[in-house]
Amino acid sequence: MKIVEASGLGLRTRRGWVYRDVDLTAETGELHAVTGPPGSGRTSLLLALAGRFPHTDGELRRRGPAALGQVAGVHEPDPTLTVAEHIQERLLLLGPVPRRRRQLVPVAAVRARRAYRRDAFAAAIAGAGLTDAPLDPDRYGRDLTPVERQVLGLVLASLSGPSLIVADDVDAGSDAPEREWIWAALARLADQGYAVVASARAVEPGATAVVHRIGDPTLPTPALVAPPAADDQTPEVHA
């Protein structure tokens, strides 16, 4: 099933193009990578795909809810909360598993949301398929490494049972083994049935991702557009 479809997507400001002419279709179970140099508009594009940022050109359709992983300056860990507290807080905010037939929640997310009173951390990590994740439940948000931030963001995103998960700059601040692990983790999320779109400067060799490179070096790089604060409400179809 096609989860997000972008055709000729672009964002233009008075300073010029942030990104333009992007064609991207992500289906259930697929991992897509958006690559490009700094200032190429990767973050703005990812947020637009998730319904959290506008676009000025082209068409965009999305089926089902989207969830944000780590997006610096928009969706980041709270420095004063531990990893376990982040998970408990998210589960409490999500509330009981909905019983409406139209809103299907993956079994893994259901188990995590029912286990928040017992062992939310273990249930959430297992539900995301990241039991080998380098993540300490007692570590505070302010102390997390770049790869730990990415892992926590992916775990939190999976709890709501979205159709689409997006994560930004997944290779930032990490070494080669960490980059290899994070791309494998993203692939595992896709294998669970999510459509996953991640941005990076480059894709790690051997990663099973459909690559979309944006940013024309012949174009002037516009000033970065400050994205809006993220929330948990995403419309099912955005055009």
Automatic annotation (TrEMBL):
Residues 4-239 form the ABC transporter domain. Keywords: ATP-binding, Nucleotide-binding. It comes from the Bacteria. Pfam families: ABC_tran. GO terms for molecular function: ATP binding. The keyword ATP-binding applies. InterPro entries: ABC_transporter-like_ATP-bd, P-loop_NTPase. PROSITE patterns: ABC_TRANSPORTER_2 (PS50893). This is ATP-binding cassette domain-containing protein. The lineage of its organism: Bacteria, Bacillati, Actinomycetota, Actinomycetes, Micromonosporales.
